[in-house]
Write a structure and sequence with these properties.
The complex is a heterodimer of chains A (371) and B (161). Chain A is mostly helical and 371 residues long. Chain A has 14 helices and 9 strands. Chain A has 3 domains: 8-46, no CATH class; 64-113, no CATH class; 143-370, no CATH class. Classes of the chains: A mainly alpha (371), B mainly alpha (161). The A-B interface holds A 67, 78-79, 82, 85-86, 109-110, 113-114, 116-122, 125-130, 132-139 and B 2-4, 6-7, 10-11, 14-19, 22-23, 32, 35-36, 39, 43, 96-97, 100, 104, 115-116, 118-120, 143-144, 147-148, 150-152, 154-155, 161.
């Protein structure tokens, strides 16, 4: 192609880039001789050079480098030693590592340090409130009702018991204190009416017919005034029907002559607590009746709930108070149970005298016991 | 997952999750809150979670809850770590566990997380990746770096082991 004033720039550039043949160079020189005004422009092309930009990596280039072995064995690197301890190597590679470790003191030292660098969980660190995390609701409405109802039964029991107590007894104190045990249990137990003679215990479960909860107490004979244990039949007072409003009745006569603070202890047949609700099929089989001895009202409540629901409230932390469930927590649960079953919103009102002794208990507006 | 299986998770994993969180944030109350939150979250989705995946779900939830808590309280955490390190730096150690604890505290956050999941719970690279939302290669790199740091730390001449 002939060099003209229309295309000379491309030839100028190619000349300086070294892209022209000898013939093209000669033609270009002849063109410049004929057009001397373009010589200055020709040499200006020579200065057109791109300077190397000083751009560096935005991070340390060592980041990209592979670790270099600081062991004195050619076949083993730090990476290999780590891979060995991470279980990333095959059998053959493991054998090579062990061989190298056996041959090289440096490799052996590094190998040992990697072995020691593994962290071990501190077994002494345990979650402090595991019980509070657990869920005791299986998702079945029947089971929820049953558990709440058992709690309600216990509340009923406690309210009823309060009514039975002599005037000098502080119920809160009774709940908190351990009542001294009676030395000769066998002798005391032998005085109790045999289980078979109690009408309600003749059946494994109470019938659905009764709509009341009641407390039965055996009044002591005069000669047994100070040693006769009171009998609380939980299976009777625990009966609550979800379809009917629960009524609580207590006997007119109180066992005033019993010295509760010294000699009172309860026998209950907690395994026989049974609650009826619409999910009859889910009710557990009645368990064999078993006599249990309780030295405080709280232990009775704990045991009753554990036997009936499997929930160990005694060792369970109440997430709302950060303390273990106490007797009044259980009472509160019982109230929630009654509220749930009856569909009403109930509250417990406590009145105390100047010494802190409870003088009355009320549930809602319709039920109140006063000393 | 049934309530029974959930409760089994509490028995089997509550300590591990608590340990993992506590070692990272060094605050018992916060660790306890995070564990409780994580279990509550798991319970609310119990119907959708298979029992076999429960542990992974739990650690993932706890991990992200912890990260949120750390970000929320970043400044305070850094101050605590600084104080912790300052307090420890001049001590002479004769117990490997103490030395390792100090070394772990000096690890970058992400390396500390992955190495703890690896060593405390025995998670695979893939499982750790699922928990921390890293890919497997990243997890492996972080573990290798952490391991190398720990090895060099406990192998320092002034460390008497």
């Amino acid at each position: 192609m002939k060099i003209t004033r229309e295309n000379y720039e491309a030839y100028f550039l190619d000349y300086h880039e070294g892209n022209l043949t000898e013939g093209q160079k000669a033609a270009l020189m002849e063109f410049l001789a004929q057009n001397p005004s373009l010589k200055e422009e020709f040499w200006a092309f020579e200065m057109v050079e791109l300077e190397e930009e000083n751009i560096s990596l935005p991070f340390d280039r060592n980041f990209l480098k592979k670790p270099v072995s600081n062991t004195d064995h050619p076949s083993i690197s730090e990476e290999t030693l780590i891979a060995y301890h991470e279980g990333d190597l095959g059998d053959e590679e493991k054998r090579q590592v062990l061989k190298a470790v056996a041959e090289s003191p440096e490799a052996r030292k590094a190998f040992t340090l990697y072995s020691l660098s593994r962290l071990e969980a501190d077994a002494s660190i345990v979650f402090p409130a595991k019980a509070a995390l657990k869920k005791h609701i299986a998702g079945s409405r029947g089971l929820i009702i049953r558990r709440l109802a058992v709690a309600a039964a216990l509340l009923s029991f406690m309210v009823s018991l309060y009514f039975l107590l002599p005037g000098s007894l502080n119920m809160q104190q009774l709940a908190d204190e351990q009542v001294p045990a009676i030395p000769d249990q066998k002798e005391e137990i032998s005085r109790i009416t045999p289980i078979e003679e109690l009408p309600v215990l003749a059946e494994t479960r109470p019938t659905i017919q009764p709509k009341t909860a009641s407390v039965s107490a055996i009044e002591p004979t005069p000669q047994e005034t100070t040693r006769q244990p009171a009998r609380m039949d939980v299976s009777q007072l625990a009966y609550i029907d979800s379809h009917e409003r629960t009524e609580l009745s207590v006997p007119d006569q109180r066992p005033q002559t019993i010295d509760l603070r010294k000699d009172f202890y309860w026998f209950t047949y907690a395994g026989n607590i049974d609650i009826a609700d619409e999910d009859e099929d889910e009710l557990p089989q009645s368990q064999p009746m078993e006599e249990q001895r309780y030295t405080s009202l709280a232990s009775l409540a704990y045991s009753g709930i554990e036997r009936s629901t499997g929930v160990d409230l005694k060792n369970m932390e109440n997430p709302f108070t950060d303390r273990n469930f106490g007797l009044w927590d259980i009472a509160g649960m019982g109230l929630a149970g009654i509220s749930h079953i009856t569909g009403t919103s109930l509250t417990v009102d406590k009145e105390t005298d100047e010494t802190g002794r409870i003088t009355s208990l009320g549930i809602g507006e319709r039920f109140r016991i006063r000393r | 997952m049934t309530a029974q299986e959930y409760n089994q998770c509490v028995d089997e994993h509550a300590d591990g999750v608590y340990r993992f969180i506590l070692k990272n944030i060094k605050d018992e109350d916060k660790a306890r809150d995070i564990v409780q939150d994580s279990f509550e979250k798991m319970w609310t989705k119990a119907g959708d979670i298979e029992f076999s995946k429960a542990k992974s779900y739990l650690f993932t939830t706890a991990y992200h809850t912890m990260i949120d808590a750390i970000r929320k309280d970043k400044k305070q955490t850094e101050l605590n770590e600084e104080a912790f390190n300052k307090h420890q730096v001049n001590n002479s150690y004769s117990d490997l566990k103490e030395v390792l604890n100090q070394a772990v505290a000096k690890l970058p956050e992400i390396q500390r997380h992955v190495i703890m999941l690896r060593d405390y719970e025995g998670y695979s690279y893939q499982e750790i990746g699922e928990i921390t939302q890293l890919n497997e290669s990243q997890v492996k790199v972080y573990i290798y770096r952490a391991r190398n740091f720990l090895k060099n730390y406990i192998g320092k001449p002034d460390m008497v082991i």
